[in-house]
Design brief:
The protein is built from seven helices and no strands. The chain is mainly α and about 130 residues long. It comes from Frankliniella fusca.
């Protein structure tokens, strides 16, 4: 019931529109550095958020976790100071352009790896570690 163009694409097994296809595995050009809106506004910001919580504000998050464990149901009232410290740290790093640039570059490397190999992008770091010369 669809048009002939879309059925031709699905029969060929294409996932991406024609302008986004290409590359060795037809997953897109590995050297393309343009970002789609979802990549820029969601995926990269998720990477920033994860790095902020795991690396940049780890001490504040640990402090809030410890306080929350001791306070139980009264966490909202007893851990305001720790919550505010984590929030301030998170805000400071979340809007840091340097961190955003690092996460953007990491995302582009992972996407390029996926487009070249067909393997998930998170494996890029593992392969990069094993391929380095000591």
């Amino acid at each position: 019931m669809g048009n002939a163009h879309s059925s031709d694409r699905s029969e060929a097994g294409h996932v991406l529109p024609k302008h986004l296809g290409g590359g060795p595995l037809n997953l897109g050009d590995p050297d393309d550095r343009s970002l789609r809106k979802v990549e820029r506004d969601i995926l990269i910001l998720n990477m920033v958020r994860d790095r902020v919580h795991k690396e940049k504000c780890n001490a504040e998050a640990t402090s809030l976790d410890k306080c929350g464990g001791e306070a139980g149901f009264l966490v909202t009232f007893k851990c305001r100071k720790e919550r505010d410290e984590l929030l301030e740290c998170s805000k400071r790093w979340f809007h840091d352009e340097g961190l955003r640039s690092e996460c953007t570059e990491e995302f582009l490397k992972q996407r390029s790896y996926y487009r070249r190999t067909g393997k998930p992008g998170h494996l890029y770091k593992e392969e990069e570690k094993t391929s380095r010369i000591p």
